[in-house]
């Protein structure tokens, strides 16, 4: 595989031609904020938090789905990008019902971490207060759509790793939401294997273990990493 040379924040780095800007940056120890990105599953560029500037382009590009090119000049942090990213995080808070003080993921939430990273001490946008449901029909898990940020990580791990494709997206615009099967209650799903991968993939407290109380929700990413790499490393035989 051919190797390309590019600069990120004026730092000269090399990467394989099929790598994305995000992968090249991470390999070089350069941090780019993400929310919908999850190691081991395909990227969709949904959250737009990984937007970067590329010399010669007026458009900001999502680093997770932008392939590198020879001689590319990338900038990952400046005032313009910081402004865009903070606005995106504020929109996520304003468009949902994120009450951190009563959330099972309080203190273990990627959305909280991003708000801190962006220096967000208040939301400048008008709150929508949407009327969203909570589904606890499953005997082990539950989903609170008020906390969902539509990252589709649950959809992708269920499809690409578990192979069940229980989760999907429905609706458009502000009515977009994740569904199980054909918008049936999760507890009635005939495809769900109760594996819990969606719970560990969720960046917030939207998908949770039942009986979890405030601040108890912790995601175990190591389980997902093992499932993604075990076959390649021959850690089990199928």
Automatic annotation (TrEMBL):
Annotated ranges, domain 4Fe-4S His(Cys)3-ligated-type: 80-119
Annotated 2Fe-2S ferredoxin-type domain residues: 4-80
Residue span(s) of domain 4Fe-4S ferredoxin-type: 139-170, 183-212
Subcellular location: Membrane
GO CC terms: membrane
UniProt GO MF annotations: 2 iron, 2 sulfur cluster binding; 4 iron, 4 sulfur cluster binding; DNA binding; metal ion binding; oxidoreductase activity
Keywords from the UniProt entry: 2Fe-2S, 4Fe-4S, Homeobox, Iron, Iron-sulfur, Membrane, Metal-binding, NAD, Translocase
Necessary cofactors: [4Fe-4S] cluster; [2Fe-2S] cluster
Record-linked PROSITE patterns: 2FE2S_FER_2, 4FE4S_FER_1, 4FE4S_FER_2, 4FE4S_HC3
Family statement drawn from the similarity comment of this UniProt entry: Belongs to the complex I 75 kDa subunit family.
NCBIfam families: PRK07569.1
PANTHER family xref list: HYDROGENASE SUBUNIT (PTHR24960:SF84), PHOTOSYSTEM I IRON-SULFUR CENTER-RELATED (PTHR24960)
UniProt name for this protein: NAD(P)-dependent nickel-iron dehydrogenase diaphorase component subunit HoxU
